[in-house]
Structure formats: structure tokens, C-alpha cells
Specification:
This protein is of the alpha+beta class. The chain starts with 16 loop residues before the first helix and ends with a strand. The longest helix is centred in the last third of the chain and has 29 residues. The protein has an eleven-stranded mixed sheet, with helices on both faces. It has a five-stranded mixed sheet with strand order 18-15-19-20-21, with helices on both faces. Strand 20 and strand 21 form a beta hairpin. The structure holds zinc ion. The site of zinc ion has 7 residues, from loops.
């Protein structure tokens, strides 16, 4: 019998995907659980990933005219009540501050005291508090548009949590804009979705499908919710960013009025759009393998690690000297707007050293010992290839080619993910086949099955509900015209066989 290959992470993806995910986070030192249930400690390697995502996205926001600002963490309860659907959607997961002081109780312990006249909600999202500011900032059409983004944390009290994917507190950005016309607001909604799609595909190497949500999956209070959806390696969908056209719902709720050029007072049109640290969970699940995470070079906390090989004390100085000079030369290079980040790891811990970096997913590992130096060459391993697949390169060739190598890795990761998604996308018109597709062989064990199904939908919430109850399958999006899987052909709903205008993307989702 063939020996089971040794992997740096156990269990493997095939053995137990959810547990593999938790173990990758641990092995790659991205984050850990905190003493507060449902909250995470993001460690430097994980936070640096987030910083690079922030930087690249923030640049794109600003290129479209958006400016950053900051609004309060606390939202008066009465604000949240202003938009009926909105409060309904978030009520179940609100953390509420009711006191403002601690006092010594009868047994000496600290007890909350000083009841607040009006409870404050820890922001689950900021439409209402930002809307209050906007109502003061806007009076004439000349004040529009307002294009604001905030980088912040939010709290949504989750009962079942998973690091990065679903936590009670998470980091995100939320954009909020105000416009004079519906057309302009709708264009902005789409523009920001396109920014998310660019971030996903160009930086995270994550192929996404752009589309809009069905009414039941919309953001509470939105008229339209646009989204990007990606396939993870367990073939579930991950929503990687959403952009909402809010119509005049929130401007009515918050009183965002302006006088038009015709001197008639009217309500403004607003949008909001958000993406979060959940993207890191997506990067882990779309690219990771049984040896750990693989970070796309464009958001990598570090691009290259140099591993000096020193076997005798007298080798130390010449090898380290060579390595330091090589590091400096590499750091002078630029890769997609950033200086190349190079780590030198000269810990004396044997083979564990190389494995540490494999688990962390650094794009390029370079081993350098006296024999390599004598030949003026380096020994290079790429994280997108097997850990055994290491090659000798002439030093100058390596330095001259490093940017190209990183680009190759970035492209390879994207292509691999795209092929995987396409291989696990099917067109289904038969209800029995649809049910079989989304039913695992062994109901007792979590196993990887299914994928994306392009099937018809009549437009009714009942049919969506039925699939959710029976199979935990939802409509991830109605793809835009020309997008993945979009086809104008009419057909019959996969559930009820009523007429359907187009195929939609069905999947199990995070
Ligand atoms: Zn139907």
C-alpha cells in the first residue's frame, strides 16, 4: 500500500475541510481565538495581509474620488429604528451598551452602574449614524455627490463563529455615498462593485462572478444588492464584497434632503458598500493546500525569505555577508507599488525553518550555503509548486528575474482557482439531478461535493426557501449580462417548473 504523503497540515483538505481551515490559520500564524468569545486576535502575518488589502483597495477608492472619514462606534438606538427593514435585519445580532460606569457591588465585585438614558448600539454597520451627518452636510445639489469611506471595526453578535469568516467583531471598510439622481447612485453602486472585483482578481488572485442578489438575500433596507462571489476549494461560495443601491430609503430615514437646480427640495439617493477581513478567509480557502496558506505575491506580507545554510562556525560570516547584500539588492526592487519585502531567517532549527515559511505561504524561499556562493548561485523554491521542486539559479538571474517570478506565481494562483471553479460548475435542468448534485454521498461526514449549478429560477421566494430547507443551497447571484454563466435563454424553474428569464448561480455558501 502506498504510504500516505506527509503534509505540513493535518487533517488534509480532503479529510476534513473545516478542520483543515482552522489548522492552516494556526500553522501559518495568521490569527488566534481570543478570551472574548467570537472575537479574534489577528497576528502580524495576518494583519499585514489585511494592511496590503487595505492599501490596494484604498488607492482604488481614492482614484474614484472617495475620501476617508471616521464616525462614532456607538449608534443611538433611536437611529437604528429609523429604517424598519434595516433594524429588523440587524436586531438579532446587536451588542448594546446600557451602562456607563462600574461600581463596587455588595460583595466587592465590580457591577455596571449609571444606566444610560438611551442605550447605544455598537455599530453593526453605519448607514444611520453616517446618514445623520450627511443630513447636515447636504442642503443643495451643489453639495453632491458626497463620497465617503470609513475603515473601522464592526460588531455583529454571532452565535457560531469561525476566524475571519464569521466573527462577532471584524475589521472592514464601509463606503457611503449621496447623489442627486437615481442614475448616478446606481452607477456608483456598480463602480464600487467593479473595484471589489478588481481587488479580488488582481490582488487576491480570486476569480469572481459579478451579479445581483435576489430580494431575500439583499442587505436590509437596500433596493438592490450587487455582489461578487468566489468558489472555495470545498466548492462552497464566498461572498467577497457587496455594493448596495439604497434608493431613497435611508435618505428618508435620516432626512438627507437637498434643493435641486430647479429649487425644488427632494430626497437624495444613497449607496453603501463593504468588504471585510473575511477576504483573508477567502484567500486561505481558495489558495491554501495541505502544507498551509499560499499568499498571492501582490498582498504578501513578505515576498522572499532568505535561508542561510551554515554548517560550520567559520561559514557564518561569509554566508551572512552574502545574504545581507543579496537582501539589500532585492529590497531595492519594486513590486506593484511596494518595495520588495525580504526576510532573512537564520534560526538554527533544522528543517523546521523551511517548513515554517512554507506554512506561512511566502511566495519565494531561497537557500544559500557556501557551495552556492562558490558557484554564485541560489537555490530557489516557489510556494505555488511542490516543496521538493527547488531549482538552482544564477544569482544575478534570480535578482533580475524576481519580479517576473512573483508575477508568474500571482497568475498561476489565479488560473488554478479559475480552472477549479470552472471544472466544478455545471448546467442543470433536471430537478433530480440538481438534488443529487448537492447531496453528499456520506451524510455523516463532511465531504467536498457539489459546486456551482447554473439553473433556472422563476423569481419566487418560495422556491428559494425550498432549496434552502432541503439542501442548504441558495442563489448566490443573478449574473450580470455577459458575466459568467449568464445567458438570456429562458427556461423552467428548477423547483416549480414555472417560466424563468435566465439562469442563476446556485451553491452552498459561507
Ligand atoms: Zn420556481
Amino acid at each position: 500500500m502506498a504510504k500516505k504523503p506527509k503534509t505540513a497540515v493535518t487533517p488534509t483538505r480532503a479529510e476534513d475541510y473545516p478542520e483543515w481551515y482552522q489548522q492552516v490559520i494556526k500553522a501559518s500564524d495568521l490569527a488566534e481565538r481570543s478570551p472574548v468569545r467570537g472575537c479574534m486576535v489577528i497576528k502580524p502575518w495576518g494583519y499585514s495581509l489585511w494592511e496590503n488589502i487595505m492599501r490596494s483597495m484604498d488607492d482604488m477608492f481614492k482614484q474614484t474620488g472617495v475620501k476617508n472619514a471616521y464616525f462614532p462606534l456607538f449608534i443611538p438606538l433611536s437611529f437604528l429604528e429609523k429604517e424598519a427593514e434595516h433594524v429588523e435585519g440587524f436586531a438579532k445580532e446587536c451588542a448594546v451598551v446600557t451602562h456607563h460606569r462600574l461600581e463596587r457591588g455588595p460583595d466587592g465585585g465590580l457591577v455596571p452602574a449609571g444606566v444610560l438614558a438611551e442605550p447605544l448600539v455598537v455599530r453593526p454597520t453605519s448607514e444611520t449614524i453616517i446618514g445623520d451627518s450627511f443630513s447636515k452636510w447636504v442642503s443643495s445639489y451643489r453639495d453632491l455627490p458626497i463620497l465617503i469611506n470609513q475603515w473601522a471595526n464592526v460588531v455583529r453578535w454571532e452565535m457560531r463563529t469561525r476566524i475571519f469568516l464569521r466573527t462577532s467583531e471584524f475589521l472592514w471598510q464601509e463606503g457611503h455615498t449621496v447623489h442627486a439622481t437615481e442614475k448616478e447612485a446606481r452607477e456608483r453602486t456598480r463602480l464600487m462593485l467593479d473595484v471589489y472585483a478588481r481587488e479580488a482578481s488582481e490582488y487576491l488572485a480570486m476569480p469572481v462572478i459579478k451579479g445581483c442578489k435576489t430580494p431575500s438575500e439583499r442587505f436590509p433596507g437596500a433596493v438592490d444588492t450587487l455582489c461578487i462571489e468566489a468558489m472555495m476549494q470545498d466548492r462552497r461560495a464566498l461572498q467577497a464584497g457587496t455594493s448596495h443601491f439604497l434608493g431613497q430609503n435611508f435618505s428618508r430615514a435620516s432626512g438627507i434632503r437637498f434643493q435641486g437646480a430647479d429649487e425644488i427640495e427632494q430626497f437624495a439617493w444613497t449607496t453603501s458598500w463593504g468588504s471585510s477581513t473575511r477576504l483573508i478567509g477567502g484567500v486561505i480557502m481558495i489558495h491554501g493546500d495541505d502544507d498551509g496558506i499560499i499568499v498571492p505575491p501582490r498582498i504578501a506580507p513578505a515576498h522572499v525569505v532568505l535561508l542561510p545554510i551554515i554548517r560550520k562556525p567559520e561559514e557564518s560570516e561569509p554566508v551572512l555577508d552574502y545574504v545581507n547584500r543579496l537582501a539589500q539588492e532585492l529590497r531595492d526592487k519594486r513590486y506593484h507599488g511596494r518595495g520588495l519585502v525580504v526576510e532573512i531567517d537564520n534560526r538554527d532549527i533544522g528543517g523546521a525553518r523551511g517548513w515554517d515559511w512554507i506554512k506561512k505561504g511566502i511566495p519565494v524561499r531561497v537557500e544559500i550555503g557556501p557551495r552556492d556562493i562558490a558557484k554564485d548561485s541560489v537555490f530557489v523554491g516557489r510556494r505555488d509548486r511542490s516543496h521538493k521542486d527547488k531549482r538552482n539559479m544564477v544569482r544575478d538571474q534570480f535578482v533580475g528575474g524576481i519580479v517576473g517570478i512573483l508575477d508568474e506565481i500571482q497568475t498561476a494562483l489565479y488560473e488554478r482557482a479559475r480552472i477549479y471553479r470552472d471544472e466544478h460548475t455545471v448546467t442543470i435542468d433536471d430537478k433530480g439531478a440538481f438534488y443529487r448534485y448537492f447531496t453528499p454521498d456520506d451524510l455523516e461526514k463532511p465531504e467536498i461535493h457539489g459546486g456551482f449549478a447554473l439553473s433556472h429560477w422563476c423569481g419566487s421566494a418560495e422556491c428559494e426557501e425550498k432549496l434552502k430547507d432541503d439542501l442548504s443551497v441558495t442563489i448566490r447571484c443573478i449574473p450580470f449580462e455577459g458575466e459568467f454563466g449568464h445567458s438570456a435563454e429562458t427556461g423552467r424553474c428548477i423547483v416549480c417548473e414555472e417560466k424563468s428569464a435566465q439562469r442563476v448561480v446556485y451553491a452552498k455558501a459561507y
